[in-house]
Amino acid sequence: MLHTLYKTATPTRDAEFYELFVEQKVIDRRRVFFVKEKHGWWNEADERAICCVNTLCPDEGLSTYDEAADMYEKQVRHRVSEGFAHSFSPDYYGQDPRGFVYQNLAKG
Asked: pLDDT value at position 108?
C-alpha cells in the first residue's frame, strides 16, 4: 500500500504532500508490519521531494496485515479530512511503470 496525498489534483512547484505506506520486516523470525507517513513538499523544478520528514513512524509494529491495513486506512481518512484528498499511487502494472493512478478520495 502506498498513497501520496495532495490538496490539489495537479501538484506543481512546492505542493505539500503526505506519503503513507506499509512496511514489513522480519524481527525475531516474526513478520511485523509498520504504518509510516512522510510529510514534505514536491519541487517540480527539481523533480524531487524537499523537506521530507517522518510524521508517523511507530517503534512498535503490528502483528497482522489486517491491523496494519486498518491503521493505514484510518490515517488516510485523517489526512483526507484535513484536505489532502488527491491520491497518487504507483501504477506498477500499467503501460508506463513510472505512471500513477489518480483518485479523489473525498468523493468516496
From this structure: 62
